[in-house]
Amino acid sequence: MALKPCKVCGTLNSSEEEICLSCGYPTKGRKRPAIFQIAAIILVLAFSVPLIITLINLIQTQQEPQIPSSTQSLAKSSKLG
Predict the structure, then answer these.
(1) pTM for this one?
(2) Tell me: the pLDDT tens digits for 7-18?
(3) How far apart are alpha carbons 33 and 38 in whole angstroms?
(4) Cβ(45)–Cβ(29) under 8 Å?
(5) Which residue ranges make up each domain of the chain?
């Protein structure tokens, strides 16, 4: 049983340990399956894309020029008369 330092925090752990007893980092180097990374990316996109689209639409509606009310009343009166 040899002691090996953790790659993250440097704490000495047994070579038989699967995770660091101090920080919880896997000492064997096993990573999470790729499905977790893909799921995380999908979740981020599912929440961020609608938010970005909503913000773009909000900005566009604020930038559109509004017709003054006097011009609107003139346009209505010319249609009636």
Answers:
(1) 0.40
(2) 889 889 888 888
(3) 9
(4) no
(5) 1-30, 31-61
